[in-house]
Amino acid sequence: MNIDEALILRCQHGEKSAFGELVKPYLQKAYAISLSFLRSKELAEDTVQNALIEAYIGIMEKKDIRSFSGWFLTLVSSRSLDTIRKTGKITTTETSLDQSQLELNGATTEPEEHLLKKERNNLLLQMIMALPDELRIVTILYYYQDLSLKEISQLINVPTSTIKTRLFRARVSLGKVIPFQNEFKKVGDSAW
Amino acid sequence: MVKNDEQLKNEIKTNLDSIEVPESLIRFAENVPSLVEKELSSPIKKKFKWKKTFTTIGATAAGLLLAWNVSMTPAFGKIMESLGVIWSISPYQDDNGLTEASKHSGFAGGVTTENNGVSFTVDEVIADKKRVFIVYHVALDKEKSGNIEDLQDLWFEELKVTDEKGRLIVKQKKDSLTEYGEETNGAHFLPRYIQTPTKTEDQKDFYGFMEFVNNGETNYTPEELRISIKNLYEATNRTEKPNREYINFDGNWNLGVKLDNTIVAKEPKTHAGKKFSIEAGGKNLDLSVDYVKVYPTMTSMKIDLLSKLDEGKGILYTYHLEDENGKIYNHIEDEILTDLGNTRPQFESFYFNYPKELYLVFDEVEFTTRDGGETHKVGKKIRLF
């Protein structure tokens, strides 16, 4: 039994503090996923809150949860997609990112190399946030949440070929800040 | 995953991991058990007994990307108008060719089946030799199902679509990976989007659509689509009511939809290809449009790059079609996209309002390189006919 499984059991036995312990390691990632989907602090926080409630109920209902982290983060992704649907949120590639919304960490005095890297990272983050929804969502699911193409396909209900196309476009856009080798040619080949 | 893909992954993780969690969210997480307990202690009003279950997360959000609101008995054009407002994900939000084709569809509509007080009805089918678009709705018998005001969307526990010979097109099943049909004789008929039943603005029925595209180079359309659905379940948790139970509608809904031949019978209008050159970033690119096929619902094209790209470079085009009057037909999707310069793009159709002249307009060419890529304005018009 791993730590998460033990904490789930403690939750089910009525130990309220166990739930906080269980979710705390995943909260940052959950919030980052939701924020990157929704581009709104308020909506992201609401969505993660709802996912937390749903997760707790799932645990108390003794839902079969084999890997809590994967299950919970997928739940957050699902609910974030749901929020997009509910709000009819329209986003465009021209949307500029309010950097203050992202509350990036970082020391004020850093070696030059670190600063350069940070500058590039900030630019990358801005570019990710500026991607159209369909590109940004698959980018986060694939590169950040580590979902497979099949898992993404199941989650957002589009064929893997379409996901590959979207990832390709995202890579091309992000290539402005992250230099890639262009060694994959046909989408769907070995690069994936 | 290639080496640079790994680099991108690391960079993205570094970036997103630097986002701080609000303190209020951390506090909320700690208090969730108490909040839920408090909510559960309040009285629950149930109008009827709901079967309690939890949705499978993998399937819960499937199809939720395409949000839309439609009127109760919408004409397709009206649906598309509604979709245009909030259809924020789909590349088809400005697909006027599809809307125009709908006006020529002879589909009578109203193919329906009912089981356990729930009906599944196919309202509209637009089909040609490339693409099939279906609009459907699910109606709940209010006597049997009660007035479930906060039920917003449903999902299929199992959805299977085959052709008239029983050949699989797609099968989605809760807790299982989606299965797709195989390529047959050069035709590969695949679902592109399946929108789950979503409640309309008038809070009555649940509308959805299914879009299928033949991604092969051989023309093909099934004579009939056979749709089988087993059980419907609530897709979205009403988290503002954490004690509210999920809702299932058990049943089997099977129907066959014969595709109206009015548009299917129309052969695509094919135009011979041509070779040409465009200049981008000081480089001459020799290209070949191998064919242009104009279907009633989309225009399909195959483009090859004849020039040799420098090692480590890829290429991507931004383009549209334009007629002699400057009317633009947008690029809507790709059948195949590569960074070798070879692609099969799809554009809005003009089948029913054929222009005298058609131009392929290259707006930009983007070279993707390991040094960060370059985008160059092109603005070159190639006359296709």
Please, could you describe this protein's structure?
The complex is a heterodimer of chains A (192) and B (385). With 192 residues, chain A is an all-alpha fold. Chain A folds into 2 domains: 3-87, Rna Polymerase Sigma Factor, Chain: A (Orthogonal Bundle); 99-183, Orthogonal Bundle (Arc Repressor Mutant, subunit A), CATH 1.10.10. Helices cover 68% and strands 0% of the residues of chain A. Chain A is built from 9 helices and no strands. Chain A has helices spanning 3-12, 17-38, 41-60, 68-87, 99-102, 112-130, 133-144, 149-156, 160-174. Chain A starts with a helix and ends in an 18-residue tail after the last helix. The model of chain A is unreliable at 89-111 and 179-192 (pLDDT under 50). In chain B, the strands form 4 sheets. In chain B, strands 1, 2, 3, 7, 8 and 9 form a 6-stranded antiparallel beta sheet that branches. A 5-stranded antiparallel beta sheet of chain B has the order 6-5-4-10-11, with no helix packed on it. Chain B has a 5-stranded antiparallel beta sheet with strand order 12-13-14-18-17, with no helix packed on it. Chain B has 385 residues and is of the alpha+beta class. In chain B, strand 1 and strand 2 form a beta hairpin. Chain B folds into 2 domains: 5-264, Immunoglobulin-like; 269-383, Conserved domain protein (Immunoglobulin-like), CATH 2.60.40. Residues 41-74 and 81-91 of chain B have low confidence and may be disordered. Chain B has 7 helices and 20 strands.
Brief rundown of the structure:
The complex is a heterodimer of chains A (192) and B (385). Chain A is mainly alpha-helical and 192 residues long.
Separation, N- and C-terminal Cα atoms of chain A: 33 Å
Name the chain pair with the biggest interface and residue counts per chain. Answer: A-B, 96 and 85 residues
CATH C-level category of the largest domain in chain A: Mainly Alpha
Radius of gyration of chain B: 24 Å
Going by CATH, the homologous superfamily of the largest domain in chain A would be RNA polymerase sigma factor, region 2, helix turn helix motif
Helix content bin of chain B? 10-25%
List the total number of helices of chain A: 9
CATH architecture grouping of the largest domain in chain A: Orthogonal Bundle
| Low-confidence blocks of residues of chain A | 89-111, 179-192
* Class derived from helix and strand content of chain B: alpha+beta
CATH topology of the largest domain in chain B: Immunoglobulin-like
User: From the helix content, strand content and strand pairing of chain A, which structural class follows?
Assistant: mainly alpha
Using the alpha-carbon principal axes, give the shape of chain A.
Answer: elongated
CATH architecture type of the largest domain in chain B: Sandwich
Largest sheet of chain B: 6 strands, antiparallel
The mean pLDDT of chain A is: 72
- Which stretches of chain B are poorly predicted, pLDDT < 50 over at least 5 residues? 41-74, 81-91
Task: Kindly state the number of beta strands of chain B.
Answer: 20
What's the order of the H and E elements of chain A? HHHHHHHHH
